[in-house]
Amino acid sequence: MRKKDAPPRWDRRMQQRLARGEASALGELYDRFASLVHGLAHRVLGDEHAADTVTRDVFAHVWQHPDTYDPRQGPLRSWLAALTNRLAVERLRTTGTAALARGGPGTAEDLERKVRHASVAARADYIVQSMPAPLRAALELAYFQRRDYRQTAADLGVTDEEARRRLRLGLQLLATAHDAGAPGAPPGIGGAA
């Protein structure tokens, strides 16, 4: 049995390969996480072109600074999500501030509210994507198909108690989206970053 604080082997090896400058490692990392990075950036920015730019920036940062990821601090996936959120929020703030300086609509408070809302939404998306499939399936049935816990249990082939447990755990995880310092949260996700 591996130690609880030992980083996952794949994450540790990937960081080492990137630190050695293996271009194939960057390609493998991109193939595995580009859709996550792009999706989170798009969720924050609401713009395809801006999300493409942030995605490129994230992987450029990883390539140029592989030592900034420490496998002992958490999964590579969470680190990439936090980096994506930070860069997307910075871009949102920069473009919003520039628009305000040009006399665009809104106020600095409106911009901060927009940034907070985008960060919480991106964190909620990350939580849903990262939660175990049984919890996600129960939430999808309850939310999108408007099933109660008994119908969810029947659809999933589990007991009523198990369906309630899955729904409760899934909702508890989602509730942490507003918490910048939630336990197990990727650093930098949530709040105004």
TrEMBL record:
Keyword list, A-Z: Sigma factor, Transcription, Transcription regulation
Family: Belongs to the sigma-70 factor family. ECF subfamily.
Coiled coil (residue ranges): none
SUPFAM superfamilies: Sigma2 domain of RNA polymerase sigma factors (SSF88946), Sigma3 and sigma4 domains of RNA polymerase sigma factors (SSF88659)
RNA polymerase sigma-70 region domain boundaries: 29-95
PANTHER family cross-referenced by the UniProt entry: RNA POLYMERASE ECF-TYPE SIGMA FACTO (PTHR43133), RNA POLYMERASE SIGMA FACTOR SIGZ (PTHR43133:SF62)
Pfam families per UniProt: Sigma70_r2
Keyword Transcription regulation: yes
Protein name: Sigma-70 family RNA polymerase sigma factor
